[in-house]
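Annotators were shown the component list below and the corresponding predicted structure, then asked to write short factual statements about the assembly.
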Amino acid sequence: DQQVKQNSPSLSVQEGRISILNCDYTNSMFDYFLWYKKYPAEGPTFLISISSIKDKNEDGRFTVFLNKSAKHLSLHIVPSQPGDSAVYFCAAKGGANSKLTFGKGITLSVRP
Amino acid sequence: EPEVTQTPSHQVTQMGQEVILRCVPISNHLYFYWYRQILGQKVEFLVSFYNNEISEKSEIFDDQFSVERPDGSNFTLKIRSTKLEDSAMYFCASSPDNNQPQHFGDGTRLSIL
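Structure shown to annotators:
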């Protein structure tokens, strides 16, 4: 099931710089997108979401951008902090369906 | 901040045995979910539950699986006759409604021997 793709398995960024995590999707029925952060031995923690009626949503250091025509979304973290080091999952759902479809995740390392 | 709690954190079971994984969703949430993540693979949806019935299930959720809300706080996943391939992290989640973010517990690691 490749409906949500996170093609880069890892990203390393210097503390204070911007982290940009990318996600692509193929299912045009998806209309709600979420980013989750996961530390080892913990469950996914909700970070930020965006509805398909918007192209940007911002919450503190986190901004999600949605490009519907390209079926692409990205998560920007600025400034990046060492505590941001974790696995980040992109997830999507569509319409009345309740299931989330997840990407494989990307491991972000923020270097002090 | 309210959170979803799951017990046990690790369950080891012999193949063919029944196992029950337990979850306490966030108290004012109405939608409940189970997901699983096999080692090295994606998080996969199993089932969603609303108003005391299954609202959606995946092809993984076959007759070996069942869910129940036995009282006002617990939400359980039962696997009737476990197989080796059921070994995975099982995550419970809940949300206030179908259009709000789902909040996840820390998971139960199920190991089938």
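Statements collected:
1. The mean pLDDT of chain B is 95.
2. The first strand of chain B starts at residue 5 and ends at 7.
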